[in-house]
Request: fold
Amino acid sequence: MSARSYLISQFSRPHGLAGRLAGWIMATRSSNQQRNLWTIGLLDIQPAHRVLDIGCGPGFALSHLAARATHGEVTGLDHSTTMLAQARRRNARAVRKGRMKLIEGSYDKLPDLAGPFDSIMAVNSLQFSGQSVKVLANLRALLRPGGVLAVTFQSRAADADDQASRRAAETVRALMAEAGFTDITTDELPLEPACAVCVRGISPEGPISG
Reply:
């Protein structure tokens, strides 16, 4: 494996020195920052909200979530201890004050997260474990009635384009609907080489079948 390929592989499960470098790239790359800040803006987070960031990485988004949920609680979930260590350093004050929790785990094997949450976001992380109805239904169960799940992604493949992003969004929309979400919407953020897409679904107010 080439050095470049090895570094790219670190973005799925960062560890060691290369993982720390991958975390630095995640936190400082302009497109990563844009995707996260855009998604946070779409969630309309209020001061008392409880928010979960799945695949929180080095904690860039967590700091901005905490700045909005000033009287609530922010939880970051990641399967990389390297990323959680960076997130803890970046958000040391919020962690110390009990306004932020950092938990090791992944959404295909969810740990006890003590919901419900008002919002859940996953930015360029869902594709690493794959999308499934079961995963999305488990996330829906963590939301309060009326809570929002936002799944944002942007392909970095050399052959990626806007149409590929839109096709992927349609797949996520169908899975969300099957998992019981309602009022599903799709938004686009123009980026290169392909637009970023955010698919949002609402947890229903009452129980659903299935």
The mean pLDDT is 85. The domain at 30-202 is CATH 3.40.50.150 (Rossmann fold).
